[in-house]
Amino acid sequence: MTDVAVRAPGPPAVTGAANPAMPSESGAPAGGVGWPSANLAAAAHPAPVQAVPPQLLRSRPGGPGGVWLMGCHGGAGVSTLAAAGLGGDAAQQWPTPPALPAGVLLVARLSAAGMKAAATAVEVWQSGTAPPGLVLFGLIAVAAGPRRAPQIARDRLQLVGGWCRRVWQIPWVNDLLGIDVDEVRDHPALRGAIPRDLYDWLTSGRAT
User: Fold this and answer.
1) Fold of 49-203
2) What SS3 class is residue 37?
3) Peptide bond between residue 131 and the one before it cis (omega within 30 degrees of 0)
4) Are strands 167-170 and 134-143 parallel, antiparallel or unpaired?
5) Among 45, 50, 149, 181, which is least packed by CB within 10 angstroms?
6) pLDDT digits (tens, 9 = 90+) for 137-174
7) What is the C-alpha to C-alpha distance for residues 186 and 173, in angstroms, rounded to an integer?
8) Cβ atoms of 19 and 172 closer than 8 Å
9) Is the overall model pTM greater than 0.85, yes or no?
10) Which of 50, 47, 72 is nearest to 127 (CA)?
């Protein structure tokens, strides 16, 4: 998926099933993505998130004081969103000096495995083991296909969303299958799919 005081997140600002619960299956999907076993699973008392210094949002993406997009897993869509101008491409690594201080937007596919990977990334952030000088802005959940995401993915998004300052969803854009990456930035279908408030939030420093 600001200038105002940040409180511990309330109900996540995403759509999905009510009363989400952590899925009970024990096996990890292909790729080794496992559901974190620490306090993240409870999601009862989320820890406060750092206030976002407004200068981070107003400076150039992808540099010191800028905004980085970090994939929670391979194929999350980071390169496409970076090409669209949402931030620097950090691949699947937490930004490190000389990129710091900087803000991070996590990116994951809205699938069961993608949301597990997002939960793991948030757990790293909550544990304090991410590089110092980072501000976790939120999570961008990118559709994994043209159909509605399965219930397990939506439930997990609801759970992980309770631990993020903001969550944004980007739907499937079939037109991207027929263009090159250098055509992404000005493609009207993608620009129309990216939430307007995400653009506004990144450029003005105000969450809407």
Assistant:
1) Rossmann fold (3.40.50)
2) coil
3) no
4) parallel
5) 45
6) 999 999 999 999 999 999 999 999 999 989 999 999 99
7) 14
8) no
9) no
10) 47
